[in-house]
UniProtKB/TrEMBL annotation:
<feature type="binding site">
    <location>
        <position position="11"/>
    </location>
    <ligand>
        <name>Mg(2+)</name>
    </ligand>
</feature>
<dbReference type="InterPro" id="IPR043502">
    <property type="entry name" value="DNA/RNA_pol_sf"/>
</dbReference>
<feature type="binding site">
    <location>
        <position position="101"/>
    </location>
    <ligand>
        <name>Mg(2+)</name>
    </ligand>
</feature>
<keyword id="KW-0227">DNA damage</keyword>
<keyword id="KW-0479">Metal-binding</keyword>
<feature type="domain" description="UmuC">
    <location>
        <begin position="7"/>
        <end position="183"/>
    </location>
</feature>
<dbReference type="InterPro" id="IPR050116">
    <property type="entry name" value="DNA_polymerase-Y"/>
</dbReference>
<keyword id="KW-0808">Transferase</keyword>
<keyword id="KW-0515">Mutator protein</keyword>
<feature type="active site">
    <location>
        <position position="102"/>
    </location>
</feature>
<dbReference type="InterPro" id="IPR022880">
    <property type="entry name" value="DNApol_IV"/>
</dbReference>
<keyword id="KW-0234">DNA repair</keyword>
<keyword id="KW-0963">Cytoplasm</keyword>
<dbReference type="InterPro" id="IPR036775">
    <property type="entry name" value="DNA_pol_Y-fam_lit_finger_sf"/>
</dbReference>
<dbReference type="Pfam" id="PF00817">
    <property type="entry name" value="IMS"/>
</dbReference>
<dbReference type="InterPro" id="IPR024728">
    <property type="entry name" value="PolY_HhH_motif"/>
</dbReference>
<dbReference type="InterPro" id="IPR043128">
    <property type="entry name" value="Rev_trsase/Diguanyl_cyclase"/>
</dbReference>
DNA sequence: TCTGGGGTCCTAGGACCC
DNA sequence: TCTGGGGTCCTAGGACCC
């Protein structure tokens, strides 16, 4: 007894490009590329010519000179995503969003009121088509992983049910690249051992897979290949970090220019943080040098914050520390991400020093400890890490 | 092929605490 | 007083996904 196929994975087809074709009838039936410098999305007409997501714009135009290249309209995609997710939630309360254009839906409890998973999936596809004007593919299976593989195999505009008794027949012949979590590096490691199909990976001993791919990745992929995936559809997942970045091209940048860009990025992120009623504790500065090597520099605060001035002060400090490297190697990307997100009602101490004056972090932390006590500051840090914490922490004055 | 922008998860060493 | 082991946190890097 294995359980039934009640997990749906719903995935919009060529999402950004499909929104463009929906909104501009002249683009329908034509190859469409979203994004100029790099391909963010390609319509199926462009994919048929070899254009792929993340490909350089130059190469894409060489492959498909007649493609229409349009700039991204993130607001339109965001709205389309909201419209589709509203239909997901109208279908079942158990929805786990994976990204802007895909989600898992658990429909196991709905048989009596809404029919079989297959009937539910057919209605869902029809509603997304008529109400939002987009094509969506759906995979149905016993586990999240199999449902995701099924929707990918069904594309474009497909529906595929993997019945529990046919799982091996479905999965084992597929190339290892189909496994969720196998990218270029892992695929190459497996290929070197002559492993090309999921079935061949399943034949390995688990210990062998762990030795080859690392403990967690090896165990995880080995379990997937053997059809083990106990993860339930989880409606409680929340974003763990938010970030923003900007590619800069290759020309030299002055310190003033970089500071302006950094300020814009941090300002935008801090707004998003507050709009979402969240706080953060860790600020990560992302850099890509002139040779495209990447680096990160981070700092974790002992207390949560959503203040632009605090975040900007930390980010500026990190950037200043990296300045010699930047001068020497050049810089092609700058970004910031905020993690250790917490709730807006987490304890946020009044900062005892004017951050606009550029006070050093260490000075501020010392002042905080003086005022609230080291234990309180450390405890605030602990509680700020727990997004489920529901009571604002009051500082214990000494 | 001259390489976007938004994320997730894992690893590994050192600091620190009990 | 010295030593050891375990657990957690922080930082940096890397693979992977859409």
């Amino acid at each position: 007894m294995r359980g039934e196929a009640t997990v749906l994975h719903a995935d919009l087809d060529a999402f950004y490009a499909s929104v463009e074709q929906r909104d501009a009838p002249a683009l329908r039936g034509r190859p469409v590329i979203v994004g100029g410098g790099v391909v963010l999305a390609a319509s199926y007409e462009a994919k048929a010519r070899g254009v792929r997501t993340a490909m350089g714009g130059r190469q894409a135009r060489d492959l498909c000179p007649e493609a229409v290249v349009v700039p991204p309209r993130m607001d339109a995609y965001s709205q389309a995503s909201k419209d589709v997710f509203a239909i997901f939630r109208d279908t079942t309360p158990i929805v786990e969003g994976l990204s802007i254009d895909e989600a898992f839906l658990e429909v196991g409890g709905l048989r009596r009121i809404a029919g079989t998973p297959e009937q539910i999936a057919m209605r869902l596809r029809e509603r997304v088509r008529t109400e939002v004007g987009l094509a969506i593919s759906v995979g149905i299976a016993r586990t999240k992983f199999l449902a995701k593989v099924a929707s990918a195999v069904s594309k474009p505009n497909g529906l595929l049910l993997v019945e529990p008794e046919r799982e091996q027949e479905f999965l084992l012949p597929l190339p290892v690249e189909r496994l969720w979590g196998v990218g270029a590096v892992t695929a190459e490691k497996l290929h070197r051992l002559g492993i090309r199909t999921v079935g061949q990976l399943a034949e390995l001993e688990e210990a062998t897979a762990e030795k080859l791919l690392g403990k967690a990745t090896g165990a995880h992929l080995h379990a997937l290949a053997r059809l083990r995936d106990p993860r339930p559809v989880d409606t409680t997942r929340r974003r763990g970090s938010i970030g923003s970045q900007r590619a800069l091209g290759n020309r030299p940048r002055s310190a003033e220019e970089l500071d302006v860009i950094l300020t814009q990025i941090v300002d935008r992120l801090a707004r998003r943080l507050r709009d979402g009623d969240r706080t953060c504790r860790t600020i990560v500065l992302r850099l890509r040098y002139g040779d495209f090597a990447k680096a990160t520099r981070s700092r974790t605060l002992p207390f949560p914050t959503d203040r632009t001035s605090v975040l900007l002060t930390i980010a500026r400090g990190l950037l200043a520390a990296a300045h010699p490297e930047i001068t020497e190697r050049g810089i092609t990307l700058i970004g910031v991400s905020l993690s250790q997100l917490g709730r807006a009602d987490s304890f946020q101490p009044e900062l005892p020093i004017d951050w606009e004056d550029g006070a050093r972090l260490d000075t501020v932390l010392d002042a905080l400890r003086d005022r609230f006590g080291a234990t309180s500051v450390a405890r605030a840090a602990q509680l700020g890490r727990d997004p489920g914490w529901s009571t604002p922490l009051l500082p214990e004055h000494e």
